[in-house]
Amino acid sequence: MHKAILPLIIAFASFSSQSADFEFSTGGGTQYGGFIGIQGGLKFEKSRYFAALGLFGVSAGAQFQMSNDGHHSLGVNGGTMYGIFGGDKDYIAMTYNYHFKGFHNSGWEIGTGVGYFKTEEHSIWFSSDVAEEEEKAHIIFNIGYKF
């Protein structure tokens, strides 16, 4: 029985054996959950997938290395920024980041992009009644440090 199962285990194990590193960073902007926050990510050879928890917000997204030198990446991210006085913003954005020491190394990164924001203003603090709704495109900026 074991002799029949072992070749199957070896065959299927090779499909899931891709190397990934965990990366931690902190910064400000939509990629970090809003104003300021922390981000944890899984980094592969040419891509990175992350989730962020910020001061009054959450975010998730992906970045993809675009150049051979590893300094440029394109990505997407989406999330929610919770308003202190009732205005919540949901967003999705396309981003460009520049990594000063490269995509795979620790160091500073800055970025910009275009995001689609949907803002809901609530009538009373902590109310679920929507008083005003606004949808707009905005230019976004991000800055952070990868450890």
UniProtKB/TrEMBL annotation:
Keywords: Signal
Signal peptide: 1-19
Name of the protein in its database record: Outer membrane protein beta-barrel domain-containing protein
Organism encoding this protein: Pseudoalteromonas luteoviolacea DSM 6061
